[in-house]
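Predict the 3D structure for this chain.
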Amino acid sequence: MKRGRPFEPGNQFGRGRPKGSRNKRSSIVKQMLDESSESIMRKAIAQALEGDVAMLRTLLGYMLPPPKELPCDTGPLPMGTVEELSQSFDATLKRVASGRITLSQAGEIFDRIEARRRLIETQELEGRMSALERNHPKAGALPLPPGRWNKKSKKANTWQT
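Done. Predicted structure below.
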C-alpha cells in the first residue's frame, strides 16, 4: 500500500457514499415528520396557547419576520469638503450621545462619511497629478527619484529597487 493513497486506482470499495445520496437516518426522520407534522404543529400551538412561553417563542421565531430598523432622521449632513465631513462626524456623535440614533445607525452613517472622504481624496490626488503632468516639460513623464542606478543591467539607465 502506498502512503497517502490507501486504495489503488479502480478500487470500487473505497469511494464512500455516492454524491447526492441521502443518509438513511435523515430520510427516515423526514418521512416520520411528513406523516405527523400536522399533529405536531397542532400540539405545539395548543401548548403555546396554554401559556408555554418557550413554545411560543419558538413558534413566533418562525412565523414573524425579523424586525427591520426604522430610518433615522439625521438632519442635514454636509459632505462637500473634508471640513464639512468632520462637522458631520461630530454632529453624528452628538446624536448618538443624546440617544437620537443608535450605534448601528451611526456606524452606517460613518461608513458613508468614509466613502465620501475617499472620493474627495481621490479627486484631489487626480487634480494634483494632472497639474504636475501639465507643468512638466515632457507631457506625462515624471523624473525618476534619486537612487541607485543598476550598472549590471544590459539596459542603460534602468532603475534598481
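The mean pLDDT is 80.
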